[in-house]
Structure formats: structure tokens, C-alpha cells
Design brief:
The protein has 120 residues and is an all-alpha fold. 85% of the residues lie in helices and 0% in strands.
Length: 120
């Protein structure tokens, strides 16, 4: 089960780097989308680093605990999707909302698949 946690951290870290890079590339073209994408990437990157550091220091997380955390996160991800959908409706926040939708959808998939892999 530790391999699920390692993969989860690697995928999140890779997504984070791609999000920061995408945000930087799109800064002039779509400022709202770029800003949200980059900030989410920074947060996701911090979570990946803290997770990897904690695992190196304390060993793998208890699979039941990790699954609970992932299921709570999946619930939050649904909230992100709802918030993104709401933001997209307002022309001033359309780019921000689109980015929140992309991030929420990715994280919902990641959290759900990892929780499923930890099902006991």
C-alpha cells in the first residue's frame, strides 16, 4: 500500500509543476486562468513535498488513515467543482472559474482513484 502513497505524491508533484509552468506560459493570454492554475500548482506542490518529507521521516501513512483523508479531499474537490462552475458564470471570473474546474476535476480523479486503490 505504500506504493499507492508514493505514486500519489509523484503524480501530485508532477501535476503541480505542470500547473505552475502552464500558469506562467498563459499569464499574458489568460490572466485569470493562469493565476489560478499557478497558485493551485504551488499549493499542490507544497502538499506533495510535505507528504514526501513526512513519509521519509515517519514511514508510510496508515492506509486506512490515508484513505479517509483522500475521501475527505474528494468531497472538497466536489466543492471546488461547484465553486468553479459558479465563477465561470461571471464574465469577470470566467478564466479563474475554468482553472478551478480543471484543478478540481483532476484532484477528484486523483483522490478517488487513490482511495479506491486503498480499499481494504
Amino acid at each position: 500500500m505504500a506504493d499507492v502513497e508514493v505514486r500519489l505524491t509523484r503524480v501530485l508533484g508532477t501535476w503541480a509543476a505542470a500547473s505552475v509552468g502552464t500558469g506562467a506560459l498563459l499569464a499574458r493570454r489568460s490572466p485569470g486562468f493562469a493565476r489560478q492554475t499557478a497558485v493551485w500548482g504551488l499549493v499542490d506542490g507544497a502538499i506533495a513535498v510535505v507528504g514526501a518529507h513526512g513519509r521519509a521521516r515517519k514511514g508510510p501513512t496508515d492506509p486506512r488513515r490515508l484513505r479517509r483523508v483522500l475521501l475527505v479531499n474528494a468531497g472538497l474537490d466536489v466543492g471546488y467543482l461547484a465553486a468553479g462552475a459558479w465563477l465561470v458564470r461571471d464574465g469577470r471570473w470566467r478564466g479563474d472559474g475554468a482553472a478551478v474546474l480543471v484543478q478540481g476535476a483532476f484532484l477528484l480523479g486523483l483522490d478517488s482513484l487513490a482511495a479506491r486503490a486503498l480499499r481494504g
